[in-house]
Design a protein that fits this description.
Length: 192
Amino acid sequence: MSFSTALALTLLAIVFVMACTMANLLARITRLERFAGEVLRGPASAPVQLGEQPAPEAVRRLVGSRDDAHLVLLSPDCTACDDAVEMVGGWPEDVRRATFLAYRDEPADRFVAPAGVRVVPQAEAVFDALAIRSTPALVRVQGGFVTHRSVGVPEAPGPTAAGGTATNGNGAAGAHDHTPDPLDGPRRQEAS
């Protein structure tokens, strides 16, 4: 074998090894990008399982005598909170009238609440009483009890985005309100 043939075969082998290495690196980068995208997107809104828990005093003062109320806890500098307010604007009117948008401080300067929704600025006592550390968060209060908590952009109160039903920890949805919820469909589970 001549020198030029050996050199050509060696260069061909080096190019093949480099091509395989590059393909492997591209596959790893693609997997890392997918993983980073899932992490940055965050978890989907999911119910936090609760035991039978009376609403804290600060929450009872806020919702007053309402049998069914929705608290959406927000921060003014949170993009997901803006999405949550937009979702609340799409809820039925009777649900919006029982919904409170609570801010730890003040809403953003140009904030406009959806029709029928009450805005509660400086609701730090409610955040602390419910131990809310991240926003947006949805809390449902029925009959003086906290029956549902979720973190993330709320789809709608009642059934969860996954198609299940929000529970109060004992497997009963709406255990303290036996009237049908306008957002609950045929999948509603009643307390036994």
